[in-house]
Structure formats: C-alpha cells, structure tokens
Amino acid sequence: MSMLDSLAAGLALVGNLEAFLALAGGIAIGVIGGAIPGMSATMAVALTLPFTFAMQPITGILLLLGVYKGGIFGGSIPAILIKTPGTPASSATVLDGYPMAERGEAGRALGMSLWASCTADLVSNLALILVAGWLASFALSFGPPEFFTLILFSLTIIAGVSGDSLLRGALSAMLGLLLATVGLDLVYGTNRFTFGDPSLMGGLNFIAVLIGLFAIPEVLAMVWHPTGHLGKARKLGHNRVTLADYRRSFVSILRGSFIGVFLGSIPGIGAAPSAFLAYSEARRKSPNRANFGKGEIEGVAAAEAGNNGVAGATLIPLLALGVPGDVITAIIIGAFMVHGLQPGPMMFIMNVDIIYGLFLGLLISSVFLLIIGSVAIRGFRYVADVPRRLLVPVVLILCIYGVYAVNNNVFDVGVMFAMGWVGFLMMRCHVPAAPFLIAFILGPLLEDNFRQAMLMSGSDPSILVRGPITWFFWALTVITVVAILRSGLKSRRDAAPSGTPDPSPRS
Amino acid sequence: MNNRQTQTRLGLGAVIFSLLLAGLAIPRWVSSPSNVPNIVLSPLFWPYVLAGLTGLTGLGLLASRAFQDDDPTPINPPIDDPRRGALRLAGMALLMVVAMGLMSWLGMVWTCMGLLLATALLVRTRHPRAAMICAVAAPLLLYAFFAHVAGVAIPQGQLVRLP
Amino acid sequence: MKLQRIGALGALSMIAFANVAQAEYPERPVNMVIPYGAGGATDISARLIAEPLGTAVGKPLVMANITGAGGATGSVSVQNASPDGYTMLFARVGSHTVSPAMKATLPYTLDDFRFVTVYEINPVACAVNARSDIETMDDLIAKAKSEGVSYSSSGVGTLLHIAAAMVLNEFGIEDPTTSATHIPQKGGGGAATAVLNGTADMVCTNSSTLASFVKNGQLRPLLVTTEEPIPGFDAPTAVELGKPALTQLVGWTGIAGPDDLPDEVVEKWGGWMETATSDAEFRDALTANGSIIELMSPAEAQEFIQTQYETFRGLVDKLGMRVEG
C-alpha cells in the first residue's frame, strides 16, 4: 500500500463526526482535569480509559490522546494563576507565569502558554509523523549507561533555575536528592529512611511534594503577613498576548519544542524534565535572561513548549516499538490492547490505516487545542480577580482534595503539609524551590540507572563510556559545567566591587 | 537577617545536617544486606555520597561569605506585627495537625469546611460572609466532583455520611 | 449548648450506626482498592471485572488505586480497614505470595487477609531478545554456566524476580542469586524493554505482557509455565521440558478483605463472583488479554494461595533470597 492509499484509509477512519467529537471532548476533559491541581493529566487519562472500551478503536484512542494533550496544557492554568502546577509537567511554568500573574498579566501569560503549547504540539506531531521510524530505532540504544549520562547532563538544568545563588540552588537540589532516597531500595529491596512506616515504603508521593513545595508556602506567607499583597497591582489582566510577544519568543518556543521531541522520544524521561530543560536553555540563550524568574513571558513560552513538545513524541516509542515512554502512554497502551491492537513494528504493516488515522487526528488536535484552550482561559482567568484572602484558603482545600485523589491516601496530605513548611522556610531564606523539584525527579533515575549499569557490567565503570551516545552526553555535561563555573566566577568578579546583592524580587 | 547572615546559617545548617546524616541517620535507618559484592552497589552508597555533597555545599556557602558585603538590609521586608505573625503561623501549624487528626474520624468534607473557615479568619479576610459561603460550598462541590465524577473514594466520617 | 449539640449528634450517629449493622450488606458503595498503578495488569483486570461485578453487587464499586512499595501500601490500607466488607482489595501474586515469601520487613502476612476469590490466572512465559543466539532453554543454561546470564524484573519481591530464579534453579543452576545477575527495573513495562535494549538477557513474566513483543518478532519465548501451550507462543511448556514443578509459577488476581471478614460477607462475594465471571463480555475481554478465567471459591482460593506461598517460601529459603533489612 502506498503512502497515499494509507492516508486515504486513515482519512476514512477519522473523517467522521464521532472521531472529531471524541478529540474535542477529550481535549476539553483534559484541560479541565489538568487545571485541577492533583487531578493531573495522568489521572484524567486513567479516568477516561474505561469509557473508551465500548468505542471504535480509533475514536477511543483519539479521545485519550485529546485528554493527554489537553491535560498537559491545562496544568499551566493553575500554575500561572495560583502557583499550583496542575500537573507535574507545568512546574517550570510557575517560575515566570506566577510572577506575571502577580503583576496583573495573567491573561498575557495564559495566552502565551496556549500559543506555545499549540506550536510545540504541532512540531511534536509533525516530528512523530516524519521521523517516528528513525527516532524509534535510536530509542532502543538507550540502556542504563546512556540514561545515566543523559540524566547527569539534565541535572545541570539546576544551574539554570537557581536564580541569584548557584550554591543555594545546589543546597536545594541536595535536599531534593536526599528526600528522593526515602522508600525501598531498588536493587536489594531494603528500607531507606522508612522508619518502619508502611506509608513511607513507597517513597514520598511526587504530587504531594510538588504541591507542598509550591502552593502551601503561599498559604503560609499569607498567614504570616495577611496584608502583604495589598497595593500590588493584581487587577487581572484583561490583557492578551500579542503577536509581537509571540514573535519575540518564537525561537525559544521552537527550541523548547525540539527539546521536547527529543526527550519525549526516549522512554522514561517525561514532560517535567523536558520543560525545565527547555526553560533553562531559553534562559541561557535569551537577551532578557536577567528578567527570567521575575515574570518573563519568554520563560512561560519555553516551559510550555518543552512540555507539550513531549506529548506527540512519546507516541514514537509507543507506536514504533510498543514501549511506553511515561505513565500516560502506559495507560494508552492499555487502550490499544483492549481493542486487540498491539503497538510495535508490526502495527505499521497490519494496521497502517489506524496509524495514519491517528496521525491525521493528531494534526487536527493542535487546532482543537487552540480553540478549546482559549475558551478555557476566558473562563479561568477570572480566578485572578477573587480577593486573595478568600482565594488562598480555598486553594488550600483544593490542594487537600487533589493530593488525596492522586493515591487515595491521607498520608500524602500530611506529606504535602510538611513539605509546605520546608518550602516556606526555603522561601524565607531565598533558597529556590525549583532545583529541589528537579533533583527529586531526576535523583532516583540517576541512582537507579547507575546501579543498573554497574549490575550489567559487574561493577566495571568503563561501561559508563561504552558508546557514542555516552561520549556525547559526557562532553555536553563537561562543557555545560565549565560554562556555568565561568559565568559564575565572572559574575562574582563583576559583583565584588559594587558588592550589593540583587534586591530580591519578592518576599 | 541580612543576606550574609542567611548565607552563614544555611552553610552551618548544611554542614551540621550532613554530619548528622553520615554519623547517625544513615547507619541507623538505611539497611543493607551483608553480601553486597561491590561498594558502589550498596544501598548505603548513594546516601553517603549525598551526605558528603551536602557537607561540601555547606562549606561552599560558608566560604562564599567572604565575597559578600555585610549589607545590613534584611532579605525579607519586615512586617508590622512579627509577634502576632509568629502566633498566626503557630496557629496554622496547629490547624494542620488537627485537620490531619480529624480527617479519618470526621471525614474529609467536614474537616475541610472547618479548616477553610479557620484559615480565612486567621488571615483576617475582609469578606467573612463570603468566606462562610465558600467554606460550606467549596468542600461540598469538590466532594461532588471527586466522588461522583472522578470516582475517587473521598474519606467519609464515622458521624455523617454523604451520599 | 455546644456540648449538648455534640451529644445529640453522637446519639444520632449511634442510631444511624445501629441501622447500618442491621441492614442487609451491602447498603452503600464498596471501596475496591487496587494496590498497583493505573494501566497495569492488575488495574486492567480489576476494571474489567468491576463492570459485571458492580451489577451483581447492586451497589457501586468505587475503584481506588493506592500504589507504592510493590503493592504493600494498598494492601496495608485494607489490612487496617474495618472488616465490614466495605473495603476490599484486589490482591495479586506479587503483593500476596511473592512479597510475603521474600520480605521480612513486610508490614503484613497472609494471615492478615481473608480471600473471597481468585478469578484470573496469568500464565508465565520466559523470553530472550530475538536477536540473541539463545534459541532454547538449554542454550540459556549453557550460557548461564559459562559466562553467566542476567534477568530483568519489575523490582525486588515481584513475580518476575522469583520466576526467573525459580526457572534457573529448576534447570540446574544451583545458586541463581550469585551466578545470575538480577537487574531490577521500575515497572513491568520496563522489564520487557530491558531485554529489548540489551540491558538484561532474559525476562520471565505474564504472557500478556510479552504477547505483543513476541508477535512482533522482537522477543523469543523459551518456555511457558502452563500445562497447555499458549496460543501465539511458539515455545515448549514446562511439562514438555520435564519440569512439572514450574506449573506452580503462575500469576493470579483475586479479591480479599481484612482477616476477620464475617462469613456471610464472604459467602455473598462467592455468589457475586459466579455471576460476574459468567458475563460474556468480561470473559471475552479478559481472555483477549491472554489470561485464563478460573473462578475459585473462598476456600479454594485460600488453599491455592497458601500452597503457592509455601512453594515460594521454600525456594526463597533454599536460595537465600530473603530480604531482611
């Protein structure tokens, strides 16, 4: 069958009202689900899954993909408005999105987030269609040693999100790494810092730590100083994102999209690290880098491009190899299986009509996301108009429900509260929270892959430089670290004569 | 607390923390099987590495004080009522502990109603009536959504069960 | 005034409570805990049976994924729940026979649960990378004896972990804990991928997990542990290879409650499960997944699980695989 025939067959599959409705409905469900902290895109997809069992395979899968994409964008709405990432992938959006909202530019930040998301989504889908086969063969050459070097390189992101002081960023990262060791040891199954408590054996829930670190300190800061926000311009922006904003951030968006595509096509990385990497790269390259972290629209654009760029690309290993790239695609694989479809190389031969149907559906989904997203923004941005001292207690309740719902466990609510106090102390000492989070995500991956590599080689360290991919990442890591050290020393030399540290943006 | 003092305290804190980890916490609460073939495979290896790096970061923070002026400006703008602010924070901590304790007995919905109202009063909202309405409506709405739309088993109390 | 009101409320609730006790079970929704994550084998199986089972029970079943520590977190939440039949657990081979056999620090034992049924059996298959030169079990054993092999699993104390050790041991490897390398991954999907990308030589897991890889020619099956061959798996059975002991090595899914679950609740579940598992749609969906539907009565389930636990416990003690710390 030629490509045109396949396209026609695919078109026949998706060219009906049902498929369009499923896609649109899925995106709407995803945006709403993503916008509720603790629901997260993962949970929205998991909850939609049972409804797809009765549908046509392609309709059901498009519905799930719609939820996925909508969810990843939807997470940025609360990240910008109330500093609570709706989904882990939108953690990086908080860094500049929330300061913008505080300045009264919520509308602009949300608009940019939508435009960046849709652009990245389109790039990601195109990448999936054009290079699925090629990138998939690449993905399987990633074993533990390659992962280890990739993650080691990714840890250099910490420098990009540390703000004024690299050392404080490092301290924050160390705390994150240490906290991530709680739980059962991967290789031997022994207890680490579990204190005999069964709830700790599973490790600390990521969402609980995330929300505790970002949202609860806002509540505590409000309790400490209830009138601190008065007088700050927080009259909502009825302002919109402009074409000029988009043009200015376009390079960052494209770069973020490609980072997303690359990391998305490798199983096991996920959208959150990709967003952080896109953000830190944008910060490194941007002429406005001094403004990053203080409400720079380019930062929002880069972060959102980074996480949405992953969405289409995670389907590359899924369709081409049958390997799920993250939790969400693992759930989507379930939907394939229930319909008797087995993702993998054979699917490109046996069910090529479905593959092309999916491709076409995905292309349309970017447009749907733009339309449904802008409706959602119009609805949600009035949240910024609610009096702060009313909003904050309600957010606290929302977080409790959300964190509970992730794992049906009251213990996680306690973890969130405790992390809230840690986050508050860090905020008071001007220790940035983002490195903590990145380290918390990447730390276990780094350790696990290191030990798996050591198991593979019988503790021979030379496996860590076993092939070109590892050499590439080692080189990249060394170059980045040298660049960071040099710029750090340079800024210190510049700063030393004048002396005064930067006045902090906010308390 | 100005910038330099903060740096000192953070540095000292990190050094002490790393010593506590290496000397006390890791030997006591991280267990490792006796027959580990190689030190790098041991469950203890990574925690010790982290403890060491934390200590180094702390030393770095202490050392970098030398580059910083003793600028007296406090890093956080002062508030009008620090004493009452601290009391409020303590109150919030108490509220959190009480809420956690009540959750299984009273159920999540009723606990959250109380917590929301108490927090709103604690931050001295200018709209007590609106806060009251929110305190009743928000937990109920969230319950309706999570329990009936999302199918989450929100903890019910021993006293009054919601449908 | 306030105290009075609280008192009144208490009295009211006592009355409500008394009513609950008298009313016919179940008179409100039943919480069903799934101790593994969404999209996994247990989750899919549980959600498939939830449809017909909910109809049989007559009250909604509220599905709750409580994940962590290889199923331990969710199991503990049911162990500690009140034994009124309103909190039940989807128990699985990993959380209820392998982990109790291997982990000394597990916060529960088999005696903390009362099983009402086992309804699904998952055959286990062992596979290697299709590009490797290992064609049969004999090749694998020869390699294990000369240069050593590695096997992947989804973590310590999972079915995959003990399955590989048990298979190697049955085929004459005296001490698989030292002569074979265990390379744990996070999650069952990761274990198959590890064989695919060359991290490990072999994986033994549910045939349903491997089916698509086998069909696509990416993995080569060496052995299935059932007595009958599995469709789609071009590999000898354990019986054909003369290792009938390996037929003990199967995955299963069942339903359990806390250990002092009343008899009438257990009886009711037995009846419901009969109705639920005869549902044609459910049977089609589950068998399409590669599972075998085998409904056990409460007593049969209890015995089946106990036997498997003892087999595993014996093996763990023999090989020194017990996790003490």
Automatic annotation (TrEMBL), chain A:
Name all DUF112 domain ranges.
21-437
Membrane-spanning segments: 20-49, 61-82, 147-163, 169-188, 200-224, 258-279, 318-342, 354-377, 389-406, 418-442, 463-485
User: What protein does this entry describe?
Assistant: Putative tricarboxylic transport membrane protein
What organism is recorded for this protein? Limimaricola pyoseonensis
Specify the superkingdom: Bacteria
InterPro entries tied to this protein: DUF112_TM (IPR002823)
Q: Name one Pfam family in it.
A: TctA
- Keywords (A to Z) from UniProt: Membrane, Transmembrane, Transmembrane helix
From TrEMBL, chain B:
- UniProt cross-references to InterPro entries, sorted A to Z: DUF1468
| DUF1468 domain residues | 16-155
Q: Where are the transmembrane segments?
A: 44-64, 108-123, 130-154
Q: Which branch of life, at top level? A: Bacteria
A matching Pfam family:
TctB
Keyword terms, alphabetized: Membrane, Transmembrane, Transmembrane helix
Question: What name has this protein been given in UniProt?
Answer: Tripartite tricarboxylate transporter TctB family protein
Q: Which organism is it from?
A: Limimaricola pyoseonensis
TrEMBL record, chain C:
From the UniProt annotation, give the residues forming the signal peptide: 1-23
Coiled-coil region(s): none
Pfam family example for this protein? TctC
Q: Which Gene3D superfamilies match?
A: Bordetella uptake gene, domain 1, Periplasmic binding protein-like II
* SUPFAM superfamilies linked: Periplasmic binding protein-like II
The record's keywords, sorted A to Z, are: Receptor, Signal
Keyword Kinase included in the entry's annotation: no
Top-level division of the source organism's lineage:
Bacteria
* Family the UniProt entry places it in: Belongs to the UPF0065 (bug) family.
The identity of this protein, by name, is Tripartite-type tricarboxylate transporter, receptor component TctC
